[in-house]
């Protein structure tokens, strides 16, 4: 018997957050859903089994990861159509947040079935909440590409971002990432490297891009890493200069939308002011 199975809605996909390190961080609601579902889709069933054993959960586990997600969708939709309750978990944190599940969730909505979130831990929110950097607004960039043009483009965007940027990075590439940002002129920008969040060796290291690039070049971090970067400090601009910038962009063929985007992202202009100038 699966505990509170009757409490779950039939034909619903539950997107369930699970601990990112400390198994005590699982919510009571998450446990109820994992016990009550007909099946739990897990990124790695061996990993999820640890959580199940800890909390005496016996619901059947099936694998759903980046390599089989697309071909698994039809089977999941059939289960939902038959009235089953399905739970989706990743190895740690919230599914679809830089983890598998995005295609499945979209397919479930497209099929006319419900998706219900069961919120809880994410490395993103944990790191952001304790980093001491501005949180409104912020941009989450997910996992930084390993190499190539895509990686360069993301780092360039991060270097000019006027607000806090957050990304996930592998421990062995932290020093390289900081060095690349140093070369992009971000040496004095404040950065926080949060590693092993909620685990025994949790650590927040704060400094400038320059100082931490030097530090991690000789002392590479270990474990799971979240990197948080202070936004670029923008120089004060007056409306006369902004109007000239708008005129130059308009003469160059930019649309009003292009102008608003450039003013807000590159110069940190308030969106309402950028919109007014773009439509004058």
Return the string of H and E elements: EHEHEHEHEHEHEHEEHEHHH
SS content category: alpha/beta
**Low-pLDDT windows of residues:** 1-5
Name given to the CATH architecture of the largest domain: 3-Layer(aba) Sandwich
What coarse outline follows from CA principal-axis ratios?
A: globular
Structure description:
This protein is an alpha/beta fold. It folds into 3 domains: 5-121, Cobalt-precorrin-4 Transmethylase, domain 1 (3-Layer(aba) Sandwich), CATH 3.40.1010.10; 124-229, Tetrapyrrole methylase, C-terminal domain (Methyltransferase, Cobalt-precorrin-4 Transmethylase, Domain 2, 2-Layer Sandwich); 239-278. Helix content is 41%, strand content 18%. The chain has 11 helices and 10 strands. The chain has helices at residues 28-36, 45-54, 69-81, 102-110, 123-130, 148-160, 174-183, 209-218, 239-251, 256-267, 271-278, and strands spanning 12-16, 39-42, 61-63, 86-89, 114-118, 138-143, 164-169, 190-195, 203-208, 225-229. It has a 5-stranded parallel beta sheet with strand order 3-2-4-1-5, sandwiched between helices. The protein has a 5-stranded mixed beta sheet with strand order 6-7-10-8-9. Strand 8 (190-195) and strand 9 (203-208) form a beta hairpin. The protein is globular and about 65 Å long. It starts with 11 loop residues before the first strand and ends with a helix. The model is unreliable at 1-5 (pLDDT under 50).
């Amino acid at each position: 018997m699966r505990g509170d199975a009757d409490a779950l809605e039939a034909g619903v996909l539950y997107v369930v957050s699970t601990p990112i390190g400390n198994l005590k961080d699982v919510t009571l609601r998450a446990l109820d859903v994992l016990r009550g579902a007909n099946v739990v889709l897990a990124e790695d069933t061996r990993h999820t089994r640890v959580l199940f054993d800890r909390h005496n959960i016996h619901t059947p586990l099936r694998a759903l990861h980046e390599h089989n997600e697309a071909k698994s969708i039809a089977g999941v939709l059939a289960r939902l159509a038959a009235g089953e309750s399905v739970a989706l978990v990743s190895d740690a944190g919230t599914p679809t947040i830089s983890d598998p599940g995005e295609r499945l969730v979209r397919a479930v909505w497209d099929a006319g079935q419900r998706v219900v979130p069961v919120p809880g831990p994410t490395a993103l929110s944990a790191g952001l909440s304790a980093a001491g950097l501005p949180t409104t607004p912020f941009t989450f960039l997910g996992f930084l590409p390993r190499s190539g043009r895509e990686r360069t483009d993301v780092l360039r965007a991060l270097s000019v971002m006027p607000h806090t940027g957050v990304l996930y990075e592998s421990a062995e590439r932290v020093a390289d990432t900081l060095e690349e940002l140093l070369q992009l002129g971000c040496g004095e920008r404040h950065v926080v490297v949060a590693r092993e969040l909620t685990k025994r060796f949790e650590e927040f290291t704060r400094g400038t891009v320059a100082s931490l690039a030097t530090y991690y070049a000789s002392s590479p971090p270990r474990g799971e890493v979240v990197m948080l970067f202070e936004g670029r400090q923008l120089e004060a601009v007056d409306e006369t200069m902004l109007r000239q910038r708008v005129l130059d962009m308009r003469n160059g063929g930019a649309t009003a939308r292009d102008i608003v985007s450039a003013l807000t992202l590159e110069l940190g202009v308030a969106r309402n002011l950028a919109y007014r100038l773009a439509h004058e």
